[in-house]
Amino acid sequence: xxxxxxxxxxxxxxxxxxxxxxYGDRVQLTGPKxxxxxxxxxxxxxxxxxxxxxxxxxxxxxxxxxxxxxSSGEEYLVLRPLLSDFVMSMPRGAAIVYPKDAAQILSLAxxxxxxxxxxxxxxxxxLSLHLLRGIGERGELFSFERxxxxxxxxxxxxxxxxxxxxENWTLSVGDLQDTLPAVxxxxxxxxxxxxMLAPWECVGVAADALKPGGVLICYVATVTQLSRTxxxxxxxGLFTHPxxxxxxxxGWHVEGLAVRPDxxxxxxTGFLITARRLAPGTVLPSLKxxxxxxxxxxxxxxxxxxxxxxxxxxxxxxxxxxxxxxxxSEKVLRKKVREARSLAQERGVEEPSAEPGA
Length: 358
Description:
Radius of gyration: 23 Å
CATH architecture of the largest domain: 3-Layer(aba) Sandwich
Oligomer: single chain
GO biological process, one term: tRNA methylation
CATH superfamily of the largest domain: Vaccinia Virus protein VP39
InterPro entries: SAM-dependent_MTases_sf, TRM61_C, tRNA_MeTrfase_Gcd14
Number of helices: 11
Keywords: Methyltransferase, S-adenosyl-L-methionine, Transferase, tRNA processing
Organism: Leucobacter luti
Distance between the termini: 43 Å
Shape: elongated
Low-confidence stretches: 1-13
Strand order of the largest sheet: 10-9-8-11-12-16-13
Number of strands: 16
CATH topology of the largest domain: Rossmann fold
Protein name: tRNA (Adenine57-N1/adenine58-N1)-methyltransferase
Strand content: 15-25%
Helix content: 25-40%
Number of domains: 2
């Protein structure tokens, strides 16, 4: 089934989060077979499938969660996308943090209204949207991204969902070790969220920014990254003992007497590792445990984590290809930037621009 969305050149209105549907709103159309299509309502726009047409004007003014009929008589359910829906369908410059992990990050890091939160890297802006919702209007989010293309995609995606670039969001481009001290003075940050290839490189600068008792949470994809991050947190002596976990969500098919797990599921996406900042000068008591076969030496660690042995640098050992990241070409990234900006413009949002000096 193929479909396209014919749009006017000058959309009107701005996206709303509730109430009657209007131009600029992002809506989901679910057809008779459960196929979901996400469109933006624009003047003179039409949604086409090989089974018929729905004019955007027919949707404007309807209450959310209404049913409309296309030109051939087929019914479609119309809903505003939830944040999780928007995140899963928005343009991606980099892999996103899935909603199941974003929810865990907000809970485990205790993201609260009014919090000052640091996030690195920003990727496509998926986690940024969840963090902005968690901190509310009184909080502040400081996001850091090394690549301009990813930052451009994130700016456009956040603006498209929010209706404008949030005033309490600062996005800086550059290495966290270099840019964080200039943006956030020492001891002024409540939470630090690291979603990057080598978060252990930023443990020190994160510790400097955090208030005593503040939370560091890292999102990593592989077991080796998890181990390397945990060892660096321990070696720093600046945090409590790290805690690690992963989240798997399995859907269920529930229809009459046919009740069973879904055949498909999103299983492993990443690991979360958390620790809390110790007060300056505090020495963490050693854990008391019996000697076991699990005891290890620095030589054991070096055989498992080569950059700890001093024979190689982190940049040489830990590359996107080694940990299985899919690296998109510059051409694909430029396309994703255009798609994200186009989505923001369809929703009546002004062209998102970089922060001065970012």
